Amino acid sequence: MSEIFKILLTSSITVLTGVTIFIGGQIVIKFIIEPIQALRKTLKDIQYAILFYQASYSTPGGKEELEEEACKAFKTLSGELCSNAKSIPFYQCWSSISNQFLPSMANIIKATIELRSLSNSVQAKDRSYNFNKANKICDLLNLQRVV
Predict the structure, then answer these.
(1) Which of 10, 49, 126, 144 is packed most tightly, with the most Cβ within 10 A?
(2) Quick check: is 23 in a domain?
(3) Contact by Cβ (8 Å): 88, 105
(4) Which three-class secondary structure state does DSSP give residue 132?
(5) Count of beta carbons in the 10 Å neighbourhood of residue 119
(6) Structural domain contains residue 2
């Protein structure tokens, strides 16, 4: 083999290896890291909504438009929570490895049900259970409980 051929072969292998690593990294970013970040943002939004709308879902006689806003926010967040979790490939694996960074899929589904239940009871006459529902959601998702 000539010296020029060796140089071209080495250069080609280096470029192909670099491109392969770049493509692999982009696949990991797009299909694993970005969906996990979207889920973490949804968890943050749930924590915010639970704290922000606490007066709306726990005490009757508040502003009706704020109660409707809370109802809509909890319904939206319940859908986002489930869909974001299901968009992560091998979610159970990542959840078990992450050591409470990501809640288990069973807890995600239970929290989705509780969020939907909370959204349906925001405007109910008897709101005595809503505070417990909010704390259950926080426990399921490893969020800070409502004080």
Answers:
(1) 49
(2) no
(3) no
(4) helix
(5) 22
(6) no
Judge whether residue 147 has pLDDT over 80.
Answer: no
| Identity at 22, one-letter amino acid code | F
Counting the structural domains of the chain, the total is 1
State pLDDT tens for residues 72-125. Answer: 999 999 999 999 999 999 999 999 998 778 999 999 999 999 999 999 999 888
What lies within 8 Å, CB to CB, of 68 at 6+ separation is 123
Contact assessment for residue 115 and residue 85, using Cβ atoms and an 8 Å cutoff = no
Placement of tokens 């670099």 in the chain: 18
Domain limits for position 50:
36-140
In our burial notation (b when 16+ CB lie closer than 10 A, e otherwise), range 12-24 reads eeeeeeeeeeeee
Whether 111 maps to a domain, the answer reads yes
List Cα–Cα distances, 45 to 1, 93, 104, 108, 134, in angstroms.
62, 24, 18, 14, 13
Query: Which residue type sits at 67?
Result: E
> Rounded to an integer, what distance in angstroms lies between the CA atom of residue 146 and that of residue 7?
65
Structural domain contains residue 100: yes
Distance between CA atoms of residues 102 and 83, nearest Å? 14
Chain-centroid distance of CA 22 in Å reads 27
Question: Both tokens of residue 144?
Answer: 């800070």
